[in-house]
Design goal:
Helix content is 71%, strand content 5%. It contains nine helices and two strands, in the order H-H-H-H-H-E-E-H-H-H-H. Helix 1 crosses helix 2, helix 3 crosses helix 5 and helix 7 packs across helix 9.
Length: 199
C-alpha cells in the first residue's frame, strides 16, 4: 500500500511537471526489479527481459503524458506489472513470427504428433525448398487466423515451450482453460490447413 501511494504521488508529479524526470526515475527504481523478474519469467532470457523492461518504462512514460489516464488507475504497481506482462507477451509474439517450421498436433485421444516441414537445402532441391516455404507460410496464416487468445496460447505452448501450468500463471487463467484453448487452437489450425490441402 505504501508503494502504491508513493507511485501515485510520483505519477502526479510527472503529469503536472513537478520535477518530472526525478519523479519518474524514482517510479522506475520502485518497480524495476519486479518488472525485470516478471519479464524474465516470461521470456526466459536476461537480455530479452532487459529489452522488455525498457519497453515497459518507455510506455509508462508515454502514458503519463495523458492526465486523463491517471484517474482510472487504482493500483499503480499492478498497472505497471500488467503493462510489463503485455510488453513481454508482445515481444514473444514478434519473436515467434520467424519460428513456425513445425507445429505439434494433438488428436482426441491426447496423442501428440508433429507436423514437420523438412529443413531442405535450396541448393540441392529448389522445388522442395519452395514447397517448404509455401507450407511454412500457410502454417503462419493458419495461426494468424486464430483469435488473439487462442493464437497467444498456442504460441506460448508450441513455439516458446511453456507448460500448461506456466501459461496459466503467465496469463492469469485456470489450467483447464489453457488445456481446452490449446486443443481448440490446434483443431482450428488443422481445419484451416486441411481445407487448403496442406499436409
Amino acid at each position: 500500500k505504501k508503494r502504491d501511494e508513493r507511485l501515485k504521488h510520483l505519477a502526479k508529479n510527472v503529469i503536472k511537471g513537478k520535477n518530472p524526470d526525478r519523479a519518474f526515475e524514482e517510479m522506475v527504481t520502485l518497480c524495476e526489479k519486479s518488472v525485470f523478474e516478471l519479464s524474465f519469467r516470461i521470456t526466459r532470457s536476461r537480455e530479452d527481459a532487459m529489452d522488455v523492461s525498457q519497453d515497459t518504462f518507455i510506455k509508462l512514460w508515454q502514458m503519463l503524458s495523458d492526465e486523463g489516464e491517471l484517474q482510472s488507475v487504482e493500483s499503480w504497481y499492478s498497472y505497471i506489472m500488467k503493462m510489463a506482462r503485455n510488453c513481454a507477451l508482445d515481444f514473444l509474439r514478434k519473436q515467434s513470427i520467424r519460428r513456425h517450421d513445425s507445429l505439434l498436433s494433438e488428436d482426441e485421444d491426447g496423442e501428440r504428433k508433429e507436423m514437420e516441414v523438412a529443413d531442405d537445402d535450396i541448393s540441392s532441391d529448389p522445388v522442395r525448398y519452395y514447397e517448404r516455404k509455401e507450407k511454412i507460410e500457410k502454417v503462419r496464416e493458419a495461426i494468424n487466423s486464430l483469435d488473439e487468445d487462442h493464437r497467444r496460447i498456442l504460441i506460448l505452448r508450441e513455439n516458446e515451450g511453456y507448460s500448461d501450468k506456466e501459461i496459466a500463471d503467465i496469463l492469469g487463467i485456470e489450467m483447464g482453460t489453457v488445456k481446452s484453448k490449446i486443443f481448440r487452437a490446434k483443431d482450428l489450425v488443422k481445419e484451416y490447413l486441411e481445407k487448403r490441402n496442406i499436409f
